[in-house]
């Protein structure tokens, strides 16, 4: 599954895996799991993170491939958040030969809608209660319903930062969309409806 931050991709990936009765991996979860279990790959990834470096593609690829080759994934699987770059996609293609990925579902949401979703988060300074300008606004603007504390925005959730994160994502993902579109497996889904509506489109695209 491909989709920008804020597109609801994680939620949908979990639903699809349930619906199809297959397993699912989010690449972030795989990292955390390997770090927690101190596997060889986990420790290798950690050595890069500890230096403040990005984990190189070949380590990420090995991590995902070791998950894919486990027997639980024999009936199929949903990948969420991987591949993220063209080299990762090419490595995945050759590792899965013969065969390959059956479908790439691209959950597309317009950038201004994503900024609205992602930059709408606020937190109470007093009790840390989360709010969202659209999804769960406080009764009184800027004030916590529970404790009356001041609501603030984390730096990560500010519109400027969010826009920058999205730009990086789109730049990175554009070549992937082209790659899977050329191989005929890409299905683009409009991700701006309700969770149920988008879920139905995704299931349809898999048939
Ligand atoms: Zn509060």
From TrEMBL:
- The source's superkingdom equals Eukaryota
Q: Report if keyword Kinase is assigned.
A: yes
A Pfam family for this UniProt protein? Answer: ADK_lid
Gene Ontology MF: a single term: AMP kinase activity
- The coiled-coil regions, if any, are none
Q: Which residues cross the membrane?
A: none
What name does UniProt use for this protein? Answer: Adenylate kinase
The protein's organism comes out as Geodia barretti
